RNA sequence: GUUAGUGUACCCAAGAGGUUUAAGGGAUCUCUCUGCAAAAGAGAUAUUCAUCGGUUCGAAUCCGAUCACUGACUCCA
């Protein structure tokens, strides 16, 4: 029996707002699409949380035995400065500002994005398509929508006719927006006169003379609208109806609503069975935003290089910190919370190192102990299958850590469990930590030279202790502590150290 | 204004009607181990879940109202 049959996944579907049992279109296979970054600037922590969320989703599904095709795009064109479909393309603007070719900007920030993903141990998707690589498809679907009467051309630009679509479908099915309210409340810009209705959105925009990124189309030299790329790339690689579509909460409207309208308009069916949205980040209770000056970049967080940060925090600490909350809740960043996470993560990380070194010594099951251990293993899976509840899974791992330390110290004896139980317990801990949650030891500044020097001092301290020269042994320990090196004396006389 | 969501201990946070006499992490305190530390283990710290009503045999969990906060879309500047 595959793991996914033993632990069927339940997930909260934004489309309908209910928690449902997950059933893939094709048994054993999963198609998942996630809106990737617009590569005109550095990724910020909000982006990281979204990609982390779906990293967990794909890791867990794979761990359960599903074959996952995970598509996450790179938006390298078409994301307009504002959703009035006016203004300059973000990438083109940046290119002019920095006197670079647009594709130079794209490459620079794409590589930066990949580096950040690597630091957070977020695995790459199966396919990472770019919008500019799919212009032909975007033009084709635009033609299709015009043919169906759901889009119209004005002055070389093409717009999606929302009211027309709404006569036979439901615009607002995902976001809960009421179309009448949208029409009433909007403001009218002069330049929006091209549209039949202000809520219409662009499928193709004619390029103004200053626009650097431009391609030929049946309607004009121009560039595609923002929403169409995701529809095209998800359909191309995952089919007209696929399993999961993810993204940040802020994309729910209008972006994902528009995607649904385009796909339903073009193909006549709902494109996605399960919509998943990850929630936003706040800082000290306030939303994280550039204008408030409280947003920070990953590298600022690592270095502690920001007015709101007392010190730096490693990427694994941050990853752990984010996993301690549910992806659908807002999460608050603060020094206090980060400090707590750092200590908590160190505890798990230490237990991971310990459990790897544990070896079964031969014995048979004590029923009570066995049930206790296996119950925790089961909890990990049940919790993960319950809408990817990483917080509860971590709680289970902390309890397992206590047992692991008991085995190490001798409070519990490995002779009281069978080899089978031991391996089930040990493997679950390691796999849930490393494969599913993607947590690994923080990349310490572990230079061989430094370790060697510390070990020399440790040897001296050992000798001092044997000689009961505690004044000297304490001096070695205290002086090292001053420098950020913590020595830990084991019962057996062995000494370990950690660098802070 | 429209719409979606949130409000749980000193801090972060889980919780989707009875298995919770409210997980887990941090903090604080006590004890065990230890030459002393550190680490680790054991225990303690919310009669209570923003407020007020209601439904129910039973609610943090459902409904209504109020207050506060957040996102999106607007509005104003």
From TrEMBL:
Transmembrane segments: none
A GO molecular-function annotation: cysteine-tRNA ligase activity
Residues annotated as domain Cysteinyl-tRNA synthetase class Ia DALR: 379-450
Enzyme class, spelled out: ligase
E.C. code: 6.1.1.16
Signal peptide limits: none
InterPro entries the record matches: Cys-tRNA-ligase (IPR015803), Cys-tRNA-synt_Ia_DALR (IPR015273), Cys-tRNA/MSH_ligase (IPR024909), Rossmann-like_a/b/a_fold (IPR014729), tRNA-synt_1_cat_dom (IPR032678), tRNAsynth_Ia_anticodon-bd (IPR009080)
Keyword terms of this UniProt record: Aminoacyl-tRNA synthetase, ATP-binding, Cytoplasm, Ligase, Metal-binding, Nucleotide-binding, Protein biosynthesis, Zinc
Motif ('HIGH' region): 37-47
Subcellular location: Cytoplasm
Keyword Metal-binding: yes
Catalytic activity: tRNA(Cys) + L-cysteine + ATP = L-cysteinyl-tRNA(Cys) + AMP + diphosphate
Cofactor dependence: Zn(2+)
Note on cofactor: Binds 1 zinc ion per subunit.
Binding-site residues for Zn(2+), renumbered to this chain: 35, 230, 255, 259
Residues that hold ATP according to the record: 290
UniProt motif ('KMSKS' region) ranges: 287-291
UniProt xrefs under HAMAP family: Cys_tRNA_synth (MF_00041)
NCBIfam families given in the database record: cysS (TIGR00435)
Matching PANTHER family: CYSTEINE--TRNA LIGASE, CYTOPLASMIC, CYSTEINYL-TRNA SYNTHETASE
Complex and partners: Monomer.
Similarity comment text for this entry: Belongs to the class-I aminoacyl-tRNA synthetase family.
Protein name: Cysteine--tRNA ligase
Gene source species: Ohtaekwangia kribbensis
Chain's gene name: cysS
């Amino acid at each position: 029996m595959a793991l996914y049959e033993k632990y069927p996944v339940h997930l909260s579907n934004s489309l309908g707002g209910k928690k449902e049992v997950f059933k893939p279109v094709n048994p054993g296979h999963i198609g998942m699409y996630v809106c990737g970054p617009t590569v005109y600037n550095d990724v910020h922590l909000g982006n990281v949380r979204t990609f982390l969320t779906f990293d967990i989703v794909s890791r867990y599904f794979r761990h359960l035995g599903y074959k996952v095709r995970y598509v996450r795009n790179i938006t390298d064109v078409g994301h307009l400065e504002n959703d009035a479909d006016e203004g300059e393309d973000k990438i083109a603007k940046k290119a002019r500002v920095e006197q670079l070719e647009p594709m130079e900007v794209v490459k620079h920030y794409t590589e930066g994005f990949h580096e950040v993903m690597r630091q957070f141990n977020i695995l790459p998707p199966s396919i990472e398509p770019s919008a500019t690589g799919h212009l032909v498809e975007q033009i084709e679907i635009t033609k299709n929508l015009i043919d169906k009467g759901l889009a119209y051309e004005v002055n070389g630009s093409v717009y999606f006719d929302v009211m027309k679509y709404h006569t036979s479908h439901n615009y607002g099915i995902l976001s809960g927006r009421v179309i009448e309210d949208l029409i009433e409340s909007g403001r009218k810009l002069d330049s929006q006169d091209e549209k039949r209705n202000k809520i219409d959105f662009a499928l193709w925009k004619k390029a103004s003379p200053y626009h650097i990124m431009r391609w030929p189309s049946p309607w004009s030299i121009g560039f595609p609208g923002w929403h169409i790329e995701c529809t095209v790339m998800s359909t191309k690689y995952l089919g007209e109806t696929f399993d999961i579509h993810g993204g940040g909460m802020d994309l729910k409207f209008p972006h994902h609503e528009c995607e649904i309208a385009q796909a339903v308009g073009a193909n006549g069916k709902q494109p996605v069975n399960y919509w998943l949205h990850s929630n936003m980040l706040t800082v000290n209770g306030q939303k994280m935003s550039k204008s408030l000056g409280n947003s920070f970049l990953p590298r600022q967080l690592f270095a502690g290089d920001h007015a709101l940060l007392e010190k730096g925090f490693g990427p694994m600490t941050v990853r752990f910190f984010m996993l301690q909350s549910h992806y659908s809740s807002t999460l608050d960043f603060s020094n206090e919370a980060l400090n707590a996470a750092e200590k908590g993560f160190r505890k798990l990380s230490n237990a991971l190192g310990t459990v790897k070194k544990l070896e079964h010594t031969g014995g048979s099951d004590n029923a009570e102990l066995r049930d206790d251990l296996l119950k925790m293993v089961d909890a990990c899976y049940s919790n993960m299958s319950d809408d990817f509840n990483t917080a509860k899974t971590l709680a289970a791992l902390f309890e397992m850590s206590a047992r692991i330390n008991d085995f190490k110290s001798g409070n519990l004896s490995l002779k009281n469990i069978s080899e089978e139980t031991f391996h089930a317990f040990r493997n679950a801990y390691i796999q849930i930590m490393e494969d599913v949650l993607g947590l690994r030891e923080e990349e310490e500044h572990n230079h061989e030279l430094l370790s060697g020097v510390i070990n020399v001092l440790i040897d001296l301290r050992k000798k001092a202790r044997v000689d009961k020269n505690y004044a000297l042994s304490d001096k070695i320990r205290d002086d090292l502590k001053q420098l950020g090196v913590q020595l830990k004396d084991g019962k057996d006389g062995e000494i370990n150290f950690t660098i802070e």
